[in-house]
Specification:
By secondary structure, the protein is an alpha+beta fold. The chain is built from six helices and 17 strands. The chain has a domain of about 170 residues: Jelly Rolls (Sandwich), CATH 2.60.120.
């Protein structure tokens, strides 16, 4: 199997963008019935090949991890159809990476919007800010599975977004900066995708705004029909992307989080922007492997200038664990801060009755992701690096601060009800 550049793959994990794929071989400009049928059959074979790759992977073991692997593949199919077959760069729209498509370490605090674009062309993004914590924009260019890899060419971070007095905004996407000096994202000749992150802190109060996109100069144009040649081209590209996601990605996730790392480990925070991650975001990552009667205590700090910090658990396929109806993720707005200034989280398979509990949703092993936003130009001191400590569940009391708040079953049920209601409001469902 071809080993993909680490930078390209790490970029995808930072973006959670869902726009990966391989450029297909050139498809003829004319295509008869047999040509289109062949493309359909190849797409079906790509799915069949994906089944064999996922089912043959070493992560595909045990009840929950096998079910998650099947879910991963079916979600890739859904993402693949939306991004490669239904999207048109001349008539773009933002598709949503939501609870249906859990991919690339997707954050439970974020609503991701993605639109495919043509490199070097001009687009207009417009909308309203909303009252959520952050609103960040990026342009992604190149192909992550190519030898050269992909990259982020431009970012408009939430702190830099220029707003009108009524909270509306406009961003021009193109090869040259507009003369009025307004919001601008550079779109190079190999630009492929616009990525938008709406980030939420207080789930009880924050709501999304609106974000839309048009290709400049095509407003009001009638959209041409899709002929056989174009559909065959899209199917060919989609088949390549589906195969790559089913074969290359699981191996990368295993190397990044598991096989090349010790168990119950957490990294020091680092700046992923040099690899194309979000500007101003630092990240730490780790893994867990715990029994039914064991727990990990994760100690975090609100470091530097960070205006948003979160921790979440993801499965062995790098998909977020259930977050609307389980507490598998918390940000520091939702968590209790101890008297020493630190935040203590308990990672366990059973509910310990602790407010800052991270639910593994029954899984024995998985990965940990910590995000620090608003860190541009800042560093995190070593004494505030996250730490992990494995204990018995029966040892919680002596390993947590004395004033650690407890929570009843009724209070937990209320918290889960509030989470579910927020997710419905966030995604308009």
């Amino acid at each position: 199997m071809r080993r993909v550049p680490l930078a390209s793959l790490l970029l995808l994990s930072c973006l959670a963008m869902g726009s990966s794929g391989v450029r297909p071989a050139d498809v003829a400009t004319t295509c008869d019935e047999a040509c289109l049928t062949k493309a359909l059959r190849d797409y079906a074979k790509a799915l069949a090949d994906g089944v064999e790759s996922v089912a043959g992977h070493k992560a595909y073991r045990g009840d929950l991890d096998q079910a998650a692997g099947a879910a991963y593949l079916t979600r890739q199919l859904l993402k693949n159809i939306e991004s490669k077959i239904l999207q048109e760069p001349d008539f773009p729209f933002f598709r949503v990476l939501d609870f249906r498509i859990r991919d690339g370490g997707d954050s439970a605090d974020q609503k991701y919007l993605m639109a495919e674009i043509r490199g070097g062309e001009t687009y207009r993004i417009w909308g309203t800010r909303g009252n959520h914590r952050r609103l960040d924009f990026q342009i992604y260019a190149g192909e992550p599975w190519s030898k050269q890899g992909g990259r982020v060419t431009a970012t408009v971070a939430s702190d830099d977004l220029r707003l009108a007095p009524d909270g509306s905004f406009e961003i021009f996407v193109g090869p040259e900066r507009p003369s009025d000096g307004g919001n601008w994202l550079h779109n190079p000749s190999d630009g492929t995708t616009v990525i938008v992150r709406q980030i939420f802190g207080d789930w009880s109060k924050e709501l999304p705004g609106e974000v839309h996109i048009d290709r400049v100069g095509h407003e009001g144009d009638p959209k041409p029909p899709i002929d056989r040649a174009e559909m065959a081209r899209r199917l060919s590209e989609a088949a390549g992307a589906l195969r790559a996601n089913a074969t290359v990605w699981p191996d990368f996730v295993d190397r990044l989080y598991f096989s090349e790392k010790p168990e119950n480990w957490i990294s020091k925070p680092s700046d992923p922007s040099r690899l194309g991650g979000l500007t101003g975001r630092w990240m730490a990552s780790g893994n867990y492997r715990i029994g039914e009667d064991e727990a990990l205590i994760l100690k975090l700090w609100r470091s530097g200038s960070a205006n948003y910090v979160s921790v979440q658990l993801i499965d062995v396929w790098m998909s977020s664990l259930e977050y609307a109806n389980r507490q598998s993720m918390l940000n520091l707005d939702q968590a209790h801060r101890s008297a020493d200034g630190a935040y203590y989280f308990v990672i366990s398979r059973r509910d310990p009755g602790i407010q800052n509990w991270l639910d593994t949703v029954g899984t024995e092993r998985g990965a940990i992701l910590v995000r620090y936003d608003g860190m541009r130009g800042r560093t995190i001191p070593p004494e505030e690096f996250p730490t992990l400590k494995k204990i018995r569940l029966s040892e919680l009391a002596e390993n947590l601060p004395a004033a650690t708040p407890r929570i009843s079953a009724e209070q937990r049920a209320k918290a889960l009800t509030e989470r579910r209601r927020h997710v419905q409001r966030r995604f308009g469902i």
